[in-house]
Every structure is written in C-alpha cells, then in structure tokens.
Automatic annotation (TrEMBL):
Organism the protein comes from: Nakamurella flavida
Record-level GO cellular component terms: membrane
Record membrane topology: Multi-pass membrane protein
Organism lineage: Bacteria, Bacillati, Actinomycetota, Actinomycetes, Nakamurellales
Transmembrane segments: 47-68, 80-99, 134-154
Name of the protein this chain belongs to: Tryptophan-rich sensory protein
The entry's keywords: Membrane, Signal, Transmembrane, Transmembrane helix
Cellular localisation: Membrane
One GO biological process term: tetrapyrrole metabolic process
Signal peptide bounds: 1-19
UniProt similarity note: Belongs to the TspO/BZRP family.
Predominant subcellular localization, coarse grouping: membrane
InterPro entries the UniProt entry points to: TspO/MBR-related_sf, TspO_MBR
Length: 177
C-alpha cells in the first residue's frame, strides 16, 4: 500500500466523518424527542463504531486500489474509486437527511442505498484483495443495522412538525419498542 494512496483515501474518510458530523446533534430537541426502539444504542456508541470503520474504509480501499494498479487493472481501479466516492457521499447524506432535514423515511431509504453501496464496495475491494474485502465486511453489516434502526425510528415517529423541527407524536408511545 502506497502512502499517497492511503493519504488520499484517509482524507476522503476524514472529510466524510467531518461533513457528516457537522449535521449530527444527539442532544438537540429533534433527536431527544424521538420515540426510540429499546435496541437503540446510546449516542456514545456511534463514534466508537464509526471511527474504526472510517479507518477500515480508508485502509482497505487503499490496499485494493494499489493492488488493482499493480495488476494493470486501471479501469477497475477507477471504478473502485468512483464507487468509494459515491459511498462516502451517501454516508454523509444520511446524517444531513436524518438530523438536519428531519426526514427519517428519506434517511431510511438513503441508508438502504448506502447499505447496497457498501456491499458493492466490499465486492470491489474483495475482487482486488481478498483479505481487504473480508476486513471491510463490518461496514455493510453496520450500515444494514443502521438501516433497520432508521426504519424503526421512522415508524415510531410518523409526524414531523415544521415549526422548530421536532417530531410530534400522533399518539403517545405509538408502536413502542
């Protein structure tokens, strides 16, 4: 793995984390007022999970990109890097749709697309370097969990009130846990 490649994929992952993190507000009224499922992780769990995932994305993508370049598979390398860019864009988009736009159903659909994109990224990375593909496997698993969680949040919080942005409940504790 070349230092320049991992620096580029690392910068992309850090940029994604920062851009998405700017949207996240777990202490804000919107998120605090959501009816959450019983299996919702504590807010402190998310940075603990995402930090190593971003490192994993950066390293495995760099390993795969360099392996493809070394094998002369330049079209596949370009396709991998495009898929990575789309994936990281989707990754950032979820935070903005969910926290800033306050649209959990849109965020759920977007998160499902992210999970599919992530599975495709694992496929592409694995085709270049089998071990890197296996190492990236936690990413689509987490995104699939995030999709299920976002759907659960959307189901429990059906009405969004525009004034102030918080979700109002149609009925108290609808579809609880």
């Amino acid at each position: 793995m070349k230092l320049t490649t991992v620096a580029a994929t690392g910068a992309a992952a850090v940029g994604t984390a920062v851009a998405g993190g700017l949207a996240v507000d777990p202490d804000g009224p919107y998120y605090r007022n959501l009816i959450k499922p019983s299996w919702q992780p504590a807010p402190t769990v998310f940075p603990i999970v995402w930090t190593p995932l971003y490192v994993d994305i950066a390293v495995t993508s760099a390993v795969a990109a360099d392996a493809l370049a070394a094998q002369g598979r330049h079209d596949e390398r370009s396709a991998l890097l495009r898929a990575l860019a789309v994936n990281l864009g989707l990754n950032t988009g979820w935070s903005w749709l969910f926290f800033r736009v306050s649209r959990p159903w849109f965020a759920a659909a977007e998160c499902a697309a992210l999970a599919v994109s992530t599975a495709d990224l694992v496929r592409r990375v694995g085709a270049a370097d089998r071990r890197a593909g296996w190492a990236l496997l936690p990413y689509p698993l987490w995104c699939t969990f995030a999709t299920a969680l976002t759907v659960a949040l959307a189901r429990r919080n059906p009405v969004r009130v525009i004034e102030g942005g918080p979700v109002r409940r149609l009925a108290q504790r609808v579809r609880r846990a």
